[in-house]
Amino acid sequence: MVRRLLIVFFTAFLLNFLWENIHAVLYVQYQGGEITRLILFRAALFDAAVITLFAALLLVLPWPRARPWVMLALGVVFAVGLEWFALATGRWEYNTLMPLIPFLNVGLSPAIQLGVTGWGALVFALIRTKSGASSRSL
């Protein structure tokens, strides 16, 4: 399981570092200042840590082990909550290019980020470690 979690962490970090850099143009600022590469690096580390924690839970519990799509749902729910908190406390602000999810009023890109990258990292780790998960459950 440790090997799987290491694969999840490093894969999640790479995917999230790319995602953070690509969608950084959708933000005005971070905590009142410029969005730097260091901020994006730290954000990707945080994202990878959250995804790895979720993966550890999913790999320990019997029901979701063969259902990596649960990672998608967990990631989206966590991300929406994080966005609500960050926007309410002024941690960051969107520019006019950010597509918003109606009624939730959070950005589409950050709302799906942890779900998509978490699912990808978990599926990659399961495949790399020759898990018993069938492609049907992915």
TrEMBL record:
- Asked whether the keyword Transmembrane helix is assigned, the reply is yes
- Which spans are transmembrane here? 40-61, 68-87, 107-127
Which keywords fit this entry according to its UniProt record?
Answer: Membrane, Transmembrane, Transmembrane helix
Q: What is this protein called?
A: Uncharacterized protein
Its ancestry begins with: Bacteria, Candidatus Lloydiibacteriota
